[in-house]
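Late entry, written up from scratch paper. The run itself happened at the end of the previous shift, but nothing got recorded in the book at the time, so transcribing now.
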Amino acid sequence: MTPFIDATLIAADSALRTLFASHRASRPTPQATEAPAPLSEADKKLAGALMRVNHVGEICAQALYTSQALAARWSGSSAQNQALAHHLERAGQEETDHLAWCKARLDQLGDRPSLLNPLWYAGAFGLGLLAGRMGPGVSLGFVVETERQVEAHLDSHLGRLPAHDTASRAIVTQMKEDEARHAKEALNQGAAPLPAPVQSLMKAAAKVMTTVAHRV
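Output as recorded:
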């Protein structure tokens, strides 16, 4: 089997697993230092909507890392391309923890993932593939900008989650720390800054996704 076909099959398998399989975290679910308090139905509904948005973000993260790693492997077997693919695949594996944590919290809240997850995955995969085909610097720059926007988004959720929903807050806090680390690692790997218009387009696309996923 050629490296091209092998990488493509791995990407297809990752997509199916992300969208349709149960996920197991490699790390324990973050726990709050304060004991959880009962949530009202309104608080559960709000927390569920926010955690659904976070779950969609992790669906997109899997698509982005998978497609960018695929693009790196398609670009050749140079040491730089292989190192980039390995870096992206490792980050994607860590993001699987977030996916599992968010889904488990949704179950606890009696809520569900977004019904549009296949659409979110496909859109993010296309964006990641495009960024990956533009070279290692741009691909890593895309990671940096994505993670920075996700970090800011998670920070806003910490301000919106019910104050006594300590379980959701613990998960979001750990996710925020992980995203900041992924951005820093990508910078250290040689990320190139993205043009301001590209950053604005990414923010606009994220706004559409978070607004729709909050409800659907």
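The chain is about 75% helix and 0% strand.
(Scratch paper discarded after transcription.)
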